[in-house]
Amino acid sequence: MSRSLAVTALASWVFAELLGAYMLANWVRSGAAGRRREEPDGMSLPVLAAHAGLNLAGLGCWIVFVATGLVAAGWLAVGFMVPAIGLGVSTVSIWTPYPVRRRPADVPAGDAGPLAGPARPTAAIPDQLLARALEDEAAAGRLVDDLLARNLAARAAPRLVPLDPRALVPFLHGVLAIATFMLATLAAISAS
């Protein structure tokens, strides 16, 4: 067994677990755990519990593997990790950025209220203007020119998308999970 590979997998696993615990604490602290029944598209507690439980069971087996060199414990840990990663992937859209702050149901789609970002120029044409332009060829030409100019101006202006640093936590958690899986699998193979 490549002991350094197994220890590296253990360190990666522990760090991924710490990030997961941090996300869970923020989820509970934000009140999202209490609003689960009101938000049917929110986090599923059974999925979250299964994800965490399988990871912790796998981590326990991996610690036994590192401490004793028992190959069966190493493969059992990898076996626990497979469904745990699958359950983790199923929560990505809900957790990124975590806890997700969504537009309230009573706010129209065009008006996100305090959640709205900077206003972007719109390329929509009011119905009245379009109806008038269709009746007059010169007006239609001006409308097309205006629409092209607005669209070209909107494309030329750089749109800065603000990076939400909270999105890096679940991203790093997922990257560490995949790295841990690869390291653990390689360590279990080398021990076999």
SSE blueprint:
Blueprint: H1 3-29, H2 45-68, H3 71-89, H4 92-95, H5 127-135, H6 137-156, H7 168-191
Helix pairs in contact: 1-2, 1-7, 2-3, 3-7, 5-6
What percentage of amino acids are in beta strands?
A: under 5%
Overall number of domains: 2
Largest sheet: none
Indicate the structural class. Answer: mainly alpha
Distance between the termini: 7 Å
C-alpha Rg, in Å?
25 Å
The total of beta strands comes to 0
Please state the average pLDDT score.
79
Low-confidence stretches: 98-107, 109-121
CA-based shape? elongated
Pattern of helices and strands: HHHHHHH
Proportion of residues in helical segments:
55-70%
Q: How is this structure best described in words?
A:
The chain is mainly alpha-helical and about 190 residues long. It has two domains: about 120 residues; about 35 residues, no CATH class. The chain is about 65% helix and about 0% strand. The protein contains seven helices and no strands. The longest helix has 27 residues. About 10% of the residues have low confidence.
